[in-house]
Structures are given as C-alpha cells and as structure tokens.
Amino acid sequence: MGHGLHYQRVLQALPYLLGGAGESVMLALMAFLMALVLGLGLAIARMESGGGLRPAASGFVIFFTNTPQLSQIFAMFYCLPMAGINLSPFVSVLLGMTLNASAYLSNILVAGIGQTPRIYHEAADTLGLNLRQKYMRIIVPHVLRIMYPALNNHFVIMLLGTSMASIFGVEELTGRAYYLASVTFRSFEVLSITAVLYVAMSFLASRFLMSLRRLV
C-alpha cells in the first residue's frame, strides 16, 4: 500500500461512515429518552415512596452505577438467552445503555428535586394535586430547567458511549470504522476521520440541545 497518508479511498467511503454516525445518534437518542423516563420514575420512588419500593429503587441505582456498563450489556447479550430471552445485538445494547443511564439520570433528577423550593410542594398540596399531577405540572418542569445542562452533558456521554456497540456487531460509527480499516488497510486515515465525525456529532448534538433549552 506504500507509506504516507492516503485519504482518497477513505473519503469515498464517507457516506458509509455517515450511515454509522446516524445509527450512533439513533441509538443514543432512544436510550436517553427511555432512560429519562425510567430515571424519573426511580427518582420519584426514591423521594416519595415508602415500603419496599424506595430501597428497591435505591438498590437498582447502586447496582447500575457501581458495575461496568460493558458488563451490563454483556449480561443482556449473553445471559438473557439462557433464560430463553433472545435479543438482537442492537436491542441488547439499547437495553443495557438504558438501564445504566437511568441510574445516573435518577441521581441527577434527585438532586434537582432536592433543589425545588418547598413552597412548590406546598402549593401542589394546597391545590389538591395528586403525585402524578404535582410532578408533571410543577416539579418536573422546574427540575428540567435547572438540571438541563447536566442532562445535556449526559446525552453527549451516551453518544460517545455508543462505540461499545461495535463489540456486539452493531454497525454504528466505530463498527463501520473498524470494518473499513480492515478492508482498506488505512487504519490511521479511517480512525482520524472517525474521530472528526465524533467531535462533529458531539458538538452539533450539544448545540442543538442547548438551542432547545428555551422550550423547557
């Protein structure tokens, strides 16, 4: 292949890499939205519930924030089939990322709920709102406003974390980069372009999400 850098063949395959980038964004977005809903449920359970639900939610968060995310995805992909549950690589990674992220998002939301002025809770009680109405109409909008930067940062972390999916055969950006490097023998060129794509994705995602902040 000769020495020196040769980007021509790699640039010709740019649409192939961009397709993988789209897969990465879709995976991160789906996992983030599902984790946000689950994380909110965990946060409310930890803040409001009694009986066994509060320790169960706390135990879930402790487990998923203190074990490697990659191990959790391995469990989804290799252990669930032993119980007769066969998931595709994409769904296994999506589920693993969702459960892991929900634990971290729960911590972010608990911190936000803890910063909510007490008068908000008292006003909801005065108006006779039930727990769901109180959170959906008063607490959650306030928490999203004050914790939005932290949630934004976590989405970018999840977007970069989608590279783990390549281990399980998902054709996201890193998976396609590895394949392209193996057939072109231009690893440096492929990986350098892939790095640029990751920087561009993270930057654009962060700017886009910050532009949505005024809607929250």
UniProtKB/TrEMBL annotation:
UniProt key word Electron transport: no
Keyword annotations of the record: Amino-acid transport, Cell membrane, Membrane, Transmembrane, Transmembrane helix, Transport
Function noted in UniProt: Part of the binding-protein-dependent transport system for glutamine; probably responsible for the translocation of the substrate across the membrane.
Transmembrane intervals: 25-45, 57-78, 90-110, 146-170, 190-210
Tagged with keyword Repeat: no
Principal place of residence: membrane
The protein, known as: Amino acid ABC transporter permease
